[in-house]
Design goal:
304 residues, alpha/beta, 10-stranded mixed beta sheet, 8 helices, 17% strand
Amino acid sequence: MTGTPERTAGGPVVVGVDESDSARDAVRWAAAEAAHRGAPLRLVAAFAPIPAGHVGNPGLGTSYRRVMTEGARAVLTSAAELAAQVAPGVATEAELRTGFPVPVLLDESERAVLTVVGSRGLGGFTGLLVGSVAVALAARGGSPVTVVRGDAGDGDAAEGDRPVVVGVDGSPTSESALALAYEEAALRSAPLVAVHTWLDDMLEPALAPVIDWAALEAEESALLAQRLAGWSEKYPDVEVRRLVVRDRPARALVAESAGAALVVVGSRGRGGAAGLLLGSVSHALLQHAHCPVLVARPDGGESG
């Protein structure tokens, strides 16, 4: 196993590894993503030995630590073999780090171009709530974070016409999400579906019977076109479909994720306190999306 890598241009794709099937899905996806990006892949497992004298220490001493460490290293070796099957040309390194998964992966994310985790770790109940590690990383990671869930496939470009879906609301994290979504669509030669919803903007529901819905929809469509204009010029080869929906953002994006290769969203929407809590839309996608979810950092965008 190797030590902590030096910061490279763009950094590695980092993936958190344990014995779960969810983590193996994450390794497959991360390996293919590293190949798309021409980036190295870094596999990381975390092991936090229970201190002697701790209430939860089983009293097995050094033999317990040795067995657990060997088991974790075997998991990393298996993950490296799996990654090599998916992306044989990608430079891959692996490390077993001492500590709990969240702080270890948060530290790794500071040097990563992308951090990848499964939606559930060991002991999780598939289909219920998203794992605590995934939520913590998506909210506080130092790089964009992909939570691999739903129909992940292996992230390969052979996914055909499956699009990259992005939510657009005009917030700073929405711009960050657009930057990542265009990049991902270009890397995969995939179409991009830009989703803009406007039901949440209705401050006075009682006025619904007298509202000119057609005019309002046209106004929202023009707003979406304005948000996309600069990005479309930067990525002229990316086919873009604009979708303006009178619906709640989370519900619309979950619905679009059913046929997507990836859905991209900001960590916070309009009015969010960046860096504190994960936004309701992002959290809903982490729990219910039918494909991997890429969460952009608030400061990760470029100017379109």
